[in-house]
Structures are given as structure tokens and as C-alpha cells.
Amino acid sequence: MSSKKLCIFVEGNDDKRLFDYALNQHLYKEFEHIQIITYSQKPDKLVNKYIENFKKSPKFDYIFLADLDSHSFNCIRSRIDKKMSKHPELEKEKTIIVKEEIESWYISGIDNSFEQLKNKSLPERTDKITKEEFDILIEDVSDSRINAMIEIAKSFNCSYACDKNSSFKYFSEKMQIKHHF
What we know:
Elements: E1 5-10, H1 13-27, E2 33-38, H2 44-56, E3 60-67, H3 76-86, E4 95-98, H4 102-108, H5 131-138, H6 145-154, H7 158-164, H8 166-174
Parallel strand pairs: 1-2, 1-3, 3-4
Helix pairs in contact: 1-6, 4-7, 7-8
């Protein structure tokens, strides 16, 4: 195991939940310690300070995730540019844009073993799934959205996700962990 540590900046709790229940177990094969920071409710100045500190540390690496939100941004480059204007310490190569929103990653990882959605018609490609479409797909899964997300994350199939979502595939390749999925 590496002595390297990783900080993952995610927008909010839905993103954090996917890492906590599905993705961290794979990342721990490459990193000794993983810290997740939700940044959307934090002041930009504080987030910039975090990034600056991680950049200075030889033992820490970081990645910064953001949703594409194509209704506001027409391409990944413009989204990265916007994030870099808010966070000047951010490095372009450390930034991963989630197509369309993190909910698209949740849906991409659902395989045939997930009983609650066996009768639903799931999309072949999930790059354009929005929160609203996700909510409609999962309305019968659980008594709450959070519980449904946890259940999906617990049975998340990373190989499916790589096949169904281009930004998840990019993430897995960037993190050099696809071979663990």
C-alpha cells in the first residue's frame, strides 16, 4: 500500500455518499488515507486554502470534482475555467467534471443484481442524467432519497459505470484504479 494520501473535493453530500459507500474501498488500494471535503457550502477562500495546503504537501494528492451542469456550461472546458476562476490554486489536471451530475454516476453503476430497479428501464448511457431524472427513476426504491442513494452505492458496479458514463470512466482511468473494479 502506498503512503500517499488523497483529498477528494466534492460538491455536496450526495457526492460524498457515493465515495463513502462505493468508491473509497477501491481508492484505499492506492491510497493510505482518503479525506473527502464537501465544498459547495464553504467559502471560496477556505477551499482555496485547502487546495493550497494540499499542493504544498509531498504526501497528499487531491482531485476536485464538479458537475457539468450543461444548462449553465456548454462544455467541460468552460466549466473547468469557471472553477479555476473561483479557485485560483486549482490545477486543471486535478479537476474532473461529472457528466451531467453525480446522480448520473449513481445510475451508471446499477447492474442487474439491484433488485429494486429490475423492472425499470435504465438508460444505456447515463452522461445526461440529471437530478430530476434520477429522482423519477428511484422513487420506488426506498422511503427516502438518501436511503435509495445509499442502497445504490452499496451495490455499485464500477465496471458497469465505466461502460455507461464517460466521465466516470475518465475518473477511474485518471485515478489508475480501473483494474481494481
